[in-house]
Amino acid sequence: MLLSRMLWSAMILALVTPLAVVAPVAPTVSGVLQTLSLGAAKAAAPALIAGTSTKCPSAIRGSTPKAPGIVSPGGVTGTTSTDLQSFATRMNQIRVANCLPPIPFRNVRYDACMERRLFWMAEDPSTNPMSAWGHRGQAKRSDGAPDVGCDGNLSGGSGNTGATAAEKWWASTGHRASLYRPGTKGSMESTCILFAMTHGGVPNEPYSFTRAAARWVRC
């Protein structure tokens, strides 16, 4: 009888003991998105070429045109003037260090069409930041939203800036050939570099997680 009462009390206690509630842990986004070149394969390459005895172009200074810093319907921040200036400054530093003529700062410009595509990537509802990453005709959104905007050389990840994007694109022979074009010498007055960058993404990417795109055009 005593054993039966003890078992019955234990059963009642088990029924009224509240379940432990574990607070959900907010997912974090980190790492680096694969850097993808426009029209060339990715390959490792030295960061900078050693100095040469050839007389090289001098460094230039300047300011890029303004970028609007718009916010997408999904709350993703677009290209800022700081992004554009950071990219142009580092790109020209790399060019001059490698005996390539610098691009006039006024010719490094914000591109709304590439930005629309970066927004399309960043607003993919998947928690996997690689879900919509890639070039047109290859990348797909998890929700099936049709591809929009214009393609470009791609770079992204946590803490990625305009300057680090310029470095990543130089460090790949495919991107270097597409965006820096080392074989093109002489005046760069009719050369423009288009650039766009987004900050953050749906559903949980922080502002510091960015996506960038750039391409070489004649202007």
Could you walk me through the main structural features you see in this protein, from its secondary elements to its overall organization?
The protein is an alpha+beta fold and 219 residues long. It contains 5 helices and 5 strands. Strands 1-3-5-4-2 form a 5-stranded mixed beta sheet, with helices on both faces. The longest helix is centred in the middle third of the chain and has 17 residues. The protein starts with a helix and ends with a strand.
Strand order of the largest sheet: 1-3-5-4-2
Major sheet summary line? 5 strands, mixed
Low-confidence runs (pLDDT<50, min 5 residues)? 1-31, 39-52
Could you give the order of the helices and strands?
HEHEHEHHEE
Distance between the termini: 96 Å
Structural class: alpha+beta
- The helix content is 25-40%
Kindly report the average pLDDT value. 82
Beta content: 15-25%
Shape: elongated
**Could you give the count of β-strands?**
5
Helix count equals 5
Which value, in Å, is the CA radius of gyration?
A: 25 Å
Q: Secondary-structure map with pairings?
A:
Layout: H1 2-16, E1 32-36, H2 81-97, E2 108-110, H3 112-122, E3 153-158, H4 162-170, H5 173-180, E4 191-201, E5 205-218
Parallel strand pairs: 2-4
Antiparallel strand pairs: 1-3, 3-5, 4-5
Helix pairs in contact: 2-4
Search tags:
single chain; 219 residues; five-stranded mixed sheet; elongated
In short:
This protein is α+β, with helices and mostly antiparallel strands. It is built from five helices and five strands, in the order H-E-H-E-H-E-H-H-E-E.
